[in-house]
Amino acid sequence: MNNEQIINTGKRQDKSAAANAQNANAAGFAVNSSPLTVLNAHCRFRNDKRKVKRPAFANCSPPLKVPVYEIFFSYQGEGLYTGLPQIFVRFAGCNIKCGYCDTAYSVKISDKAYYMSAQDLLKQIKKIYKDNKKSFSFGKPSVALTGGEPLIHAGFLKYFLPMLRKEGFCAYLETNATMPERLKKILKFCGIVSMDFKFASDCGKSFWKKHEEFLKIAKNKVFIKCVITNKTKFAEIQKSVSIIKKISKNTHLILQPSADKRSRPKLADIYRFYSYAQKQLPNIHLMAQMHKVYGMR
Ligand code: SF4
Questions:
Q1: Which amino acid residue places its CA nearest to atom 7 of ligand 1?
Q2: Whole-prediction pTM value?
Q3: Measured between alpha carbons, how far is 24 from 13 in angstroms, rounded to an integer?
Q4: Whose CA is nearest to atom 1 of ligand 1?
C-alpha cells in the first residue's frame, strides 16, 4: 500500500478528529468539511502499524526516510501567524522534555510513526494543498514543520526543503531552538522560523547559550515564543529579554500563558512579566493558543 492509498482508503472516523469537528462547529469556527476529511484521513495514516526499518537521525547520508506522525491541514494556532491556514507536518522525536508538552506522543519515535521519503512527503503535501485549495486563496501556503523537534531531522530537511521551495511552498519551522548548528544547514530554505525559549522551570534545564546562538543565526526570519506556566520565574523572563535586547531588539516576542488548567499561571504574574518585557522591548505580544480555545488541531 502506498501513502496515497493510506490517505484515501478506510471509512473509520477518528474520535479525536470528530471531537475537534464538534468543538470547532460549536464554537462557530469556519472549518469546512474538506480539512476534516483530511484530518480523519491522517489519523488513519498515523495509526498505520507496519514494521519499517528505522533510519539513523540527521546524519544519514543521503537521508532516505524520516519518521512522521501526521500531515494535516489546519490553521496556525499560536505566534505571530495565528489564524493562517497551513499544512502541518509533524515529525517524530524530540531532544528535550517540557512539562507542558501538548504533543507528548511525538517526543518518542514509536512504531506509530510512518517513515517517509522526501518524494512521499512532497506528494502528500501537494495532495493536501489540492484538496484544500479553496482555503488558500492567496496561493501556495506555508508548510509548518513541527514535531517533536524537526531539526533532529536536519539532514533530511536539507535535502527536502529545496524540493518544497521548488514547488512554491514556504517552509515555516517550529523549533525548540536548542540545535543552532543544525539550523545553519537549512536556514536558507526556511521562510519563517518560530523559535521557543525553553526554561529550566518547565524543561528541566536551561539552554541560554544555545538560544543565543540560535537567535544570532535566525534573526532576520525569526520570532520568539515563551510559554508561561505557574512555574515560570521572573528571572527567566528577564534573561529572555536581555538576550533579545542584546542580539536583535526588534524581534517579536510572544508571551504565551499555558492553556492547561494544571499549569496555568496567575494573572498577576502574567501582568508582571508582560509589563516588564514591554518596557524593555518594542514588540511584545501576549497571546493564547487559538487552537486550544476552539478545540482545533
Ligand atoms: S520541545 Fe516541543 S515537542 Fe519537545 S517536549 Fe518540548 S514542547 Fe514537546
A1: 101
A2: 0.80
A3: 16
A4: 176
The mean pLDDT of 95-119, rounded to a whole number, is: 95
139 CA distance to ligand 1 middle (Å): 31
Mean per-residue pLDDT, 74-98: 96
CA distances from 143 to 39, 59, 168, 255 (A): 16, 23, 10, 23
Mutate to test the pocket of ligand 1, among 69, 95, 98, 203 (most ligand atoms within 8 A of CB): 98
Measured CA to CA, the distance from residue 65 to residue 92 in angstroms comes to 12
pLDDT at 294: 74
> Would you state the CATH architecture of domain 3-293?
Alpha-Beta Barrel (3.20)
What's the pLDDT score for residue 63? 62
Residue 195 CA to ligand 1 centre (angstroms): 12
Measured between alpha carbons, how far is residue 153 from residues 44, 77, 103, 123, 186 in Å? 23, 23, 18, 19, 11
**Ligand 1 atom with minimal separation from the 97 CA:** 5
Residues 6+ apart with CB under 8 A from 269: 228, 230, 232, 234
DSSP state of 153: G
pLDDT of residue 293: 77
Q: How far is the CA of 199 from the centre of ligand 1 (A)?
A: 12
Average pLDDT, the chain: 83
